[in-house]
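subagent[fold] <- orchestrator: predict structure for attached chain, return tokens only, no commentary.
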Amino acid sequence: MRFDVLTLFPEIFSGYLTQSLLKLAIDRGLTSVHLHNIRDWAEGKHKQVDDKPFGGGPGMLLMAGPVVEAVEAVQAAADAPPGRLLLMSPQGRRLDQSLAEELSTSNRLVLLCGRYEGFDQRVVDLLRPEEISIGDYVLNGGEVAAMTIIDSVVRLVPGVLGDETSNQEDSFSRAGRTLEYAQYTRPREYRGLSVPDVLLSGNHPEIAAWREADAARRTAARLRAMDSGLQDSAGEPRPKPEA
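subagent[fold] -> orchestrator:
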């Protein structure tokens, strides 16, 4: 699977691409990530890529010319189909596990990262990208969102995780899209907290039943917390404040 990332700051990806499972996947030829600097398609001595918005307003906009020409050149240059063009935008379709699974069936994804106040609208009008959001908040640029898409998609590429079944037990990938059950490792007891006895029993049907029940419990608790708006930073329900 091939990823092409268009950005003004390709250096941001240098550490990300050289660590952990993604590096192994690249080294093994299971995926490739190609970085392209949008500024390479800018004209003039200073390679300007942004300008003030017509009508006034704060900040700067990425100009249509360099962005459109960069995307067209990148899509045409590789010995591969143009791929799905994804524009990182808080206004886009929300990234979830279903979308990650859908994207993982593509042979090529082209990720367009914005900066400043965003893109001249003609970028969207001419290129017709799929706009993707990783949440209802605004980032300094699209690079972190692009990394999030790469990370969520590449682990679904066959062979990347080694065990082809491991991602089937992930939260949101499980049957019914439930959260993953709690897991434990050594030691059996830590600061007064013990591993549930059933996980030490060796009885695999009972272990499987416990895991399904725990996944259902955690999912229901999370939904209740979301409904009430009472949730801590780790997603666990907070106790309701006393009146």
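orchestrator: received. Logging for downstream: Residues 239-243 have pLDDT under 50 and may be disordered. The chain has two domains: 2-154, 174-228.
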